[in-house]
Design brief:
2 copies of one chain form a homodimer.
Chain A lengths: L4 E4 L3 E7 L2 E8 L1 H9 L5 E8 L6 H4 L5 E9 L5 E7 L6 E7 L19 E4 L4 H8 L7 E4 L3 H6 L1 H8 L4 E5 H8 L4 H9 L5 E5 L5 E5 L4 E4 L13 H16 L4 H18 L6 H4 L3 H15 L2
Parallel strand pairs in A: 1-4, 1-8, 2-6, 4-5, 8-9, 9-10, 10-11
Antiparallel strand pairs in A: 2-3, 6-7, 11-12, 12-13
Chain lengths: ~300, ~300
């Protein structure tokens, strides 16, 4: 049934400004949001690096969850990644106020030997050459998904295209999809990206939901869960990926029907993340909440 | 079963600029798009006015369709409404290049006595006081929907609020909903508008679909049909309204399950409109096409 799930990504010290307030020096990072989201569905193998200044104890953060921190490196004399960002009133547009790459600008953490047999792999956003290097340490993955962002599309396109030929699924924002494809129409953009070598592309549209296309010509469109209050959208994309990959790994068979349910699970998991600052919203949820909201989403999107 | 359906709205001479080309002096107007869209579902009663300069023969345009033109007034010594607009690359944002209200700036056409018993009524966008005047000529409507736009929200809010207390359903764009409610979050905006007296609000999000909320607390979210080619979005909103009201009038019972199916029919009907300039896309479709696309939409939005 369930297959192993590995994530490689960042751990960050975030400062977040929204119309609702400011939260300074809180826990963030793609691997953190992903792991907490995926942990509702089954065990998670975590690979990431912090400096020895990191004020957070991840073992405590993930207490009671099946997150294997064997791949967490605490690097001596390095400093933890920091990010500060501000959200506009619409909560979809954000500005990066400052970035200190710190340890993320150094060599990536090694994938522990015990994780080399991982079957489902999520490569969170980082330089595509590093994603390739991390992936090369997994011997026979069954289903690999990755995220990317505008700066890699612009300045590291050859590496990104090499990555796309080695993975199964790309999960990106709609603007990134348009940029990567050089095509405004999202349906055409999806087809162009499929032509770059992936079998599945998932394009996230913020409060307007997501679109998934397959190389077999299948499509799936799902609105976002209707949120009447968005406290902090940080981590929504990585939480979506965590729910998506968590459901897929739990099922073990990424056929299109399972992929559709995975998009729905990603959608509702992310809806808990945005209800609170940092990881507060996600940490307060449980699997029953997620399943309940999935059924609610099904009801309000079915005619 | 089926109930009578009345539309009041405009007939226009449109000039449309899109990234795909220019079409000068083509047929447009809300009542025209609405009627052609609704005619796939049942008979339509048409109320609108043109000047004696109008180059279009609406009897010919609607030949073979059950559109009763008893409410079409051809006003002597008046000039037909003209509109020119340009679409941005994203096809959702448009600029009005010029408007000549002409006959639309005069008294509205009377609703013929034979139409006074209409049960389902759509008041297409115009000055709210005129919508009220048109509605007052219908004796016992069962379900009334209306459209409006930014200038009435800004400058005729009292009349618009009086209208909202007399109708059942408002069908508007997401930006208009935000403006009317004074609230960015669309779910909250919907609730605020319901508080103004309507039972149902449908908020259209262009290529991102639509959201419907009811005063009973029910919700429905549906993506747009995924179009890989948009030739001309003009009339999409009125075609949506035509499919929506056409289905409702055909069924005769606007319960929420029927309203959900009506949103889906509106969505697919509009998807034919945007595939061609002016009415070309809609005129080339038939009911079998619409039903086929509805099932396709159901398949690609169900998990």
């Amino acid at each position: 049934m369930g297959e192993s799930l590995l994530v490689t990504g960042s751990i960050g010290i975030d400062t977040i400004r929204t119309p609702h307030g400011v939260r300074e020096d809180c826990l963030g990072g793609s691997a953190v949001y992903f792991s907490m989201a995926a942990s509702f569905f089954g065990p998670v193998r975590f690979v990431g690096v912090v400096g020895d200044d990191c004020p957070f104890d991840l073992a405590e953060v993930f207490a009671g969850r099946d997150v294997d921190l064997a791949g967490l490196e605490i690097r001596k004399q390095s400093k933890t990644f920091r990010w500060a960002g501000s959200y506009a009133l619409n909560m979809d547009d954000r500005t990066t106020d400052s970035v200190e790459l710190n340890v993320l600008g150094e060599a990536p953490p090694p994938v522990p030997q015990a994780f080399a047999d991982s079957k489902f792999v999520f490569l969170a956003n980082t330089m595509p050459s590093l994603q390739l290097r991390l992936l090369s340490q997994v011997s026979e993955p069954a289903f690999v998904a990755a995220d990317t962002m505008n700066i890699w599309i612009k300045d590291h396109l050859a590496d990104l295209k090499a990555l796309l030929r080695k993975i199964d699924c790309l999960i990106i924002n709609e603007d990134e999809a348009r940029q990567l494809a050089g095509e405004y129409n999202l349906i055409k953009a999806g087809r162009t990206i499929l032509g770059m070598g992936v079998d599945i592309v998932v394009m996230k549209k913020g409060e307007s939901g997501s679109v998934m296309c397959s190389a077999d010509g299948e499509q799936f469109l799902l609105p976002a869960y209707p949120a009447s209050h968005v406290e902090d959208p940080t981590g929504a994309g990585d939480s979506f990926a965590g729910g998506f990959m968590g459901h897929l790994a739990g099922r073990g068979t990424p056929d299109f029907a399972t992929l559709k349910a995975a998009v729905a699970y990603g959608t509702v998991t992310a809806s808990f993340t945005i209800a609170g600052f940092s990881l507060d919203g996600l940490a307060a949820a449980n699997r029953t909440d997620i399943d309940g909201r999935l059924e609610e989403l099904r009801k309000i999107t079915t005619f």
